[in-house]
Design a protein that fits this description.
Blueprint (H helix, E strand, L loop, with lengths): L5 E3 L6 E3 L3 E2 L1 H4 L7 H13 L4 E3 L8 H12 L6 E6 L12 H15 L6 E5 L9 H12 L6 E4 L3 H8 L4 E7 L11 H8 L2 E5 L22 H4 L17 H12 L8 H10 L6 E2 L6 H9 L8 H19 L4
Parallel strand pairs: 3-4, 4-5, 5-6, 6-7, 7-8, 8-9, 9-10
Antiparallel strand pairs: 1-2
């Protein structure tokens, strides 16, 4: 296994790799992935130094969790910290976020992952009022006391939700969309997390692949790919697809971003490197559907820090092309 930089994931006290493995793709919402191919992807990530997997009970309705559970059973040498999420399989009303439901959801995830105690459970982008409800955190504390979970956290859509959660003493980490096309978390969220000792998990790091520079305005995605059916938030929050950016705008901006990549560094690795070096980020969780993608993602951890001139150019591109469209929305 190739060593990779490790950072402490907030209040969990556990160290995880700066590049983790997102596993939404393995659930099926990006097109079908065979089980053997999924195991190959996870093998490639672990052998490249990844010690952090992120999943959710809703990815493939549990398929992603099940694949990880079976994989880790066959790889006892892999010291992987697994973060899952709960809540999105139920109707999205605050009344569903109660202890009895949490126990039921946890039981399912524990069975899927083949473990008695879940490393980390994140509320999966619930209704905004859930983040400020005392009873929710009391219930989460109970799960810790019952040893169903070792720690809890939140996944958010907006910076306001993140700031509300960071103020809670039991919240270990916050998962939020952060990439060169989504800079708003840099303003308040990351500084607040650093001050509170809360970890930051950066998701949608490549803006659903836009920042790889591989797509054109004529690219066609499969009908079972959320990049086809959720461009305007038809199925879930629009920000989860292309970071909420109009596709044509994103393709044009991605071409400019690709020109900022250092010599020898692909645009996707440059985007991941940009995230890794933002103060307060614990881990970035790109997905992968192939061994090559998993290895390339992990290799971003070994790139040298981007120079200030590149950071300034990313900010200028964002302010000119992206900010007018999406900044205030998120």
């Amino acid at each position: 296994m190739i060593p990779m930089e490790q950072r402490t994931l907030g209040r969990t006290g556990r160290d995880v790799s700066v590049v983790g493995q997102g596993t939404w793709q393995l659930g099926g919402d990006w097109g079908e992935v065979e089980e053997s191919d999924a195991f190959d992807v996870l093998d490639a990530a672990v052998d490249s130094g990844v010690t952090f997997f992120d999943t959710a009970d809703v990815y493939g309705d549990g398929r992603s969790e099940q694949l990880i559970g079976r994989y880790l059973k066959n790889r006892p040498d892999a010291d992987v910290f697994v973060a899952t999420k709960m809540g999105r399989r139920a109707d999205q009303v605050p009344e569903n976020y109660v202890l009895d439901n949490f126990r039921t959801w946890n039981d399912r995830s524990r069975a899927n992952l083949g473990t008695d105690t879940l490393d980390l459970v994140q509320l999966h982008c619930p209704p905004s009022s859930v983040y400020s409800t005392d009873a929710v955190y009391d219930a989460l504390d109970t799960l810790v006391e019952e040893r169903r979970i070792a720690a809890y956290a939140v996944s958010v859509e907006t910076c306001a939700e993140a700031l509300t959660a960071i103020a809670r003493p039991g919240v270990a980490s916050v998962q939020i969309i952060l990439n060169p096309f989504r800079l708003k978390p840099l303003d308040e969220v990351l500084p607040a997390a650093v001050a509170a000792g809360v970890g930051i998990i950066a998701r949608v790091p490549l803006a659903s692949g836009l920042l790889s520079g591989k797509y054109t305005k004529d690219t066609v995605f499969g009908p079972d790919d959320h990049r086809t059916y959720n461009r305007h938030g038809e199925a879930f929050d629009q920000g989860e697809t292309f970071s909420g950016i109009d596709y044509a705008t994103g393709v044009a901006a991605a071409a400019e971003f690709a020109a900022l990549a250092p010599e020898g560094a692909p645009p996707a690795q440059t985007a991941l490197r940009w995230i890794i070096q933002q103060p307060g980020v614990t881990s970035v969780i790109p997905g992968a559907r192939s061994v090559e993608q998993a290895r390339a993602n992990a290799a971003a951890a070994a790139l040298p820090p981007l120079p200030q001139s590149t950071l300034d150019a990313v900010r200028e591109l964002y302010d000119r092309s992206i900010r007018p469209e999406v900044h205030d929305r998120w």
